[in-house]
Amino acid sequence: MANERKMSLIGFMQAQNCSTYPGSWRHVASDPGYLTPEYYQSIARTLEAGKFDMAFFDDRLAMPDLYSADHAQTVAAGVRAVKLDPLVVLSAMAAVTTHLGLGATYSTTYYEPYHVARTFATFDLMSKGRAAWNVVTSLNDSEAANFGKEEHLEHDLRYDRADEFLETTLGHWDTWEEGAIVNDKDTGQFAHADKVKRLDHKGQFFNSRGPFTVPRSPQGQPVLIQAGQSGRGRAFAARWGELLFVVYPNLGLAKKQYAEMKAAIAASGRDPEKVRIATACHVVVGETDEIAQQKFDYMDALAEPIDGLTLICEVLNTDFSTRDIDAPFTDEEMAAISGWQTFRDRVVTLSGKKNPSVRDFVEFSKRARLREFNVFIGSPKKVADEMEQWFREGGCDGFVLSPTHMPGSYEDFVRMVVPELQKRGLVRTEYESNTLRGNLGLEAPKAGDWKQQSGPDSLAASIKGT
């Protein structure tokens, strides 16, 4: 049926030498052209042929170098050692596509609101309404050092700054009204001056005057992506996010956490049906279940121990190299972990240990392994069956597909799984709109809409204890 709820498909990409799976660059069929525009443009064409909603780039502002306080092992093993600016890469992808959404990660911790507002508003115009901004708070001291800081901001303080960052950015996006530009050569009037306002924001973290210099795009403003799953992160995501990226390790937890997140969105005064939640996954598909399993076994064997150790230290902002691998972290040490608290909490949940060890973090996080995310392995029918179950049973609104290698992982999915999903009416056969908002079923925001969104204090009841 034309109006039946559709599954969102997002390509989870990195502007670097590997995908989210660090071992991907070691795959015999992995394309080494990640420093060229043609590499990313080829993937963009594949995703658009598969009618994906969006290609999305994760990012960090530093090389993973906290393990042993040195970058040498990261570079030698190729553990996300290359990091290009994702928005520049997306510009190359925009040039060869017409419908594919294009999302990039930019930090609220080290950038300034006016810079981000202008950059993304410009990209939204140049892509004709296909831009999305993944709003993040940066994770670790390595990123702080690259921006002249001694240490990283405390977790909740980062989100306080991020709230004001969003208010300032959205304020600038809101200062040009629809119809402001008239381009009347006969009268000599370029625009209605009363439809362009100055922000004059003065706050705790930012002062930003304006007037803003970029008019509104065809979709009003870029789509806001958020991935917060900690208590404070959930409050932030519930207040601001329009497309939420999550990591649900199994369907049981997915149902529980999906329902909690939708409830938090409702408690913030927003319509939960207007916010889409997509969970990260790997897909390994073959013509038969046996072929797919053989593919998985080969890919999984590409992981090296240094991959996981390096990336765990990166996200937790902690050096594990000097610790006894089996010594449990104390309560004080667990509380002091200042990085990705959702990652920490997930290990506690999956291990059943309040005080896990380094070995527990490696084993239960599956960091840098294919099992870090949920994995669908099998024939096209088997993969589609599992994805449909998650979608139908309230586990998610869609999937953020992380490739095992590029470009082959996406090519296999589009060639084998997408037709099966289309046959079941789960994904589109044609794009509904020329804008990302249109394809996600999101309305273009009206002037001042964001001012009605509740602040973090009003979400305390819905977030506490979940």
Overall pLDDT level = 91
Number of helical regions: 17
What is the molecular shape? globular
The major β-sheet equals: 8 strands, parallel, barrel
Number of domains: 1
Spatial separation of the terminal alpha carbons:
36 Å
Indicate the CATH class: Alpha Beta
How many DSSP E strands? 13
> Remind me, CATH topology?
TIM Barrel
Uncertain parts: 456-466
How much strand content do the residues show?
Answer: 5-15%
Nearest-angstrom radius of gyration? Answer: 22 Å
CATH superfamily: Luciferase-like domain
Please trace the helix and strand order, writing H or E for each element: EHEHHEHEHHEEEEEHEHEHHHHHEHEHHH
Explain the overall architecture.
The chain has helices at about 35-50, 70-75, 85-95, 115-125, 140-145, 155-175, 230-240, 250-265, 290-300, 305-315, 330-335, 340-350, 360-365, 380-390, 410-425, 435-440, 460-465; strands at about 10-15, 55-60, 100-105, 130-135, 180-185, 190, 200, 205-210, 225, 245, 275-285, 375-380, 400. The protein is α/β, with parallel strands linked by helices and about 475 residues long. The strands form three sheets. The chain has an eight-stranded parallel beta barrel with strand order 1-2-3-4-9-10-11-13, surrounded by seven helices. A two-stranded antiparallel ribbon has the order 5-6. α8 links the parallel β10 (about 245) and β11 (about 275-285).
Provide the descriptors you would attach to this structure in a database record:
two-stranded antiparallel ribbon, alpha/beta, 39% helix, eight-stranded parallel β-barrel, 17 helices, globular, disordered C terminus, TIM Barrel, 466 residues
